[in-house]
Design goal:
Layout: H1 2-9, H2 13-30, H3 33-44, H4 48-76, H5 78-99, H6 103-112, H7 114-117, H8 120-128, H9 136-144, H10 149-163, H11 168-188, H12 203-209, H13 212-243, H14 247-262, H15 265-275, H16 277-295, H17 301-329, H18 334-363, H19 367-373, H20 375-392, H21 401-417
Helix pairs in contact: 2-8, 2-9, 2-10, 2-11, 3-4, 3-10, 3-13, 3-14, 4-5, 4-6, 4-8, 4-13, 4-18, 5-6, 5-8, 5-11, 8-9, 8-18, 9-15, 9-17, 10-14, 13-14, 13-17, 13-18, 13-20, 14-17, 15-16, 15-17, 16-17, 16-20, 18-19
Length: 418
């Protein structure tokens, strides 16, 4: 209770709320093609692999653009970067609503939707810099819980498309919440002066890339966030193909699974604040491994849904726990680190739909796809346990800007000496 009271006495809650709404709406738009994939595939006569490639494109472009927006946020401020991101996001929505008439155009729209995915690298640093170290896990979890926007996409996209007799109309309707959130964000979000750094340069990425911890975080996030966003974009197609459900029912079952992960990211951050991010991650990666092995059995619809529900739940707990560690390790480069590590997570989300669709096409079953994915939590668990002692005796236990900066200088000097 003392920690909760302290949380409400510090920081700037309008910025935290604005960050959440920005990320929530952007995430909804980012994954919009996934729930609509059944209807799009029918209209354009796409194969299972073609439609999986299409729904994966926004994830890939979003991953790349996260690096750009992470740098831009540290350069000009996250608030300005967020406003720019929302203005650009309106372009593919208008295009998809009024002007899209071919697969080629839809591919370009899918690329532009990646701008919405880049919101991650803006929303989280904007909120986190208003709060002290003791609340980083919870704050990043709350702002990161904007992935709950996937619920609106999976639950309502196909219903609206059927009601208006066109999936194009869904893109036009998405402009309404985007406009509302843009106004709230502009009026309520406030930039932390500490976090506007006009001297940040591209070379700062080299500092992060030289750190072995960056790559460990990236692989770990590849599994958790990549798993969540990848499953989110593909679950509607999975239920449609595996269990012969129509577009609306497939979206409903996808929504059940997405709900599991949409609101628990703050819980993962809170748990990490209380018992330690390293311990939480180790438990979660072991759980993800067990759930993926179970999912590979392709159980009856109800049982498989329950397993995927728990899998999505675990993915998002891991997302919150992992990003409790990032600002402790890289306190002076939070925006850059968030964007870079987030980019790798997005790439994981790009690979997952393609992997599952390819295994289904080549081997006639999704089972092999789930088994191949099980390699990732094993690798992540090994890396976390291998790094545990070093992390606990450096930035996790000692904390502080000076100590993390010393670690970063050690990374650079180690590369130089090699």
């Amino acid at each position: 209770m003392k920690q909760v009271n302290s949380f409400f006495r510090v920081g700037h809650w309008p910025t935290l709320l604005s960050s959440f709404l920005y990320f929530d709406t952007s995430f909804m738009i980012w994954v919009l093609l996934g729930p609509l994939a059944v209807l799009i595939a029918k209209e354009y006569h796409l194969s299972s692999i073609q439609v999986a490639n299409l729904v994966a494109i926004p994830t890939l472009s979003g991953s790349i653009l996260r690096v750009v927006f992470g740098w831009l946020g540290d350069r000009v401020g996250q608030k300005r970067a967020g406003q720019l991101g929302m203005l650009i996001t309106a372009v593919p929505l208008v295009w998809g609503w009024k002007l899209s008439h071919s697969v080629t155009e839809l591919t370009v729209i899918a690329i532009l939707l990646g701008v919405a995915g880049a919101s991650f690298a803006v929303a989280l640093p904007l909120a986190s810099k208003w709060y002290p170290k003791s609340h980083q896990g919870l704050v990043l979890g709350i702002s990161g819980a904007g992935n709950s926007g996937t619920i609106f996409a999976t639950l309502f996209a196909n219903r609206l498309a059927v009601h208006f007799h066109s999936w194009h109309a869904v893109f036009g309707l998405a402009l309404i919440p985007l406009t509302v959130v843009f106004l709230i964000f502009t009026l309520c979000a406030r930039q932390s002066h500490e976090h506007v750094n006009g001297t940040v340069r591209i070379s700062s990425y080299l500092k992060l890339l030289r750190s072995g911890d960056t790559w460990i975080f990236a692989l770990c996030y590849w599994m958790t966030f990549g798993g969540f966003v990848g499953m989110t974009t593909y679950l509607t197609l999975f239920f449609h193909t595996q269990y012969s459900l129509n577009a609306i029912r497939s979206g409903d079952f996808a929504t059940i699974c997405v709900i599991a992960g949409s609101f628990v990211r703050p819980v993962g951050g809170w748990l990490a604040d209380r018992v330690g991010g390293i311990r939480v991650l180790a438990i979660l990666y072991a759980s993800i491994l067990a759930l993926l092995l179970t999912a590979s059995r392709l159980l009856p619809l109800g049982a498989e849904t329950a397993v995927l529900f728990m899998l999505m739940f675990t993915f998002c707990l891991g997302n919150g726990a992992l990003f409790q560690l990032v600002p402790l390790r890289f306190p002076t480069l939070v925006g850059l680190a968030t964007g870079l590590i987030g980019a790798f997570g997005g790439i994981g989300g790009y690979v997952l739909p393609k992997l599952l669709a390819s295994c289904k096409a080549w081997f006639g079953s999704y089972a092999d796809g789930f088994l191949l994915l099980a390699i990732l939590p094993v690798a992540s668990l090994v890396l976390v346990l291998w790094s545990k002692q070093r992390w606990e005796t450096s930035f996790v236990e000692l904390g502080g800007r000076a100590n993390a900066d010393r670690l970063l200088r050690d990374d650079e000097s180690g590369v130089a000496s090699s």
